[in-house]
Amino acid sequence: MIHMNHANLMIHMNHYIILNLNLKIFVNKVDISCMDKKLEHTLMLKVLRCYVELSPENLWMDGEATPAQARARANHINGELGLLFKQLGRKVSEEEAYNYKSNNESE
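^ that's the sequence the OP posted. Answer follows.
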């Protein structure tokens, strides 16, 4: 059995965490670089659609929705956004989604 004092244990734990973080970063870079550009394009447009649907005018259906309806709609849209972020492998801000659309309008 190997005996380690607290300092040695922390050094080994930090080394393990750094190795895992490096591996995770590498894996994420591979996943993103291998992603089909058409799929990424489709997902980004869906993210933008979700952000548009979360605008107050759309969420409250121009004042016609009840608070319960608006909350249910927001929960549904936010759930959809979470799934899209998972598929993309990262979170996308509203600003990034709008910029993506304006930079890729010809596609």
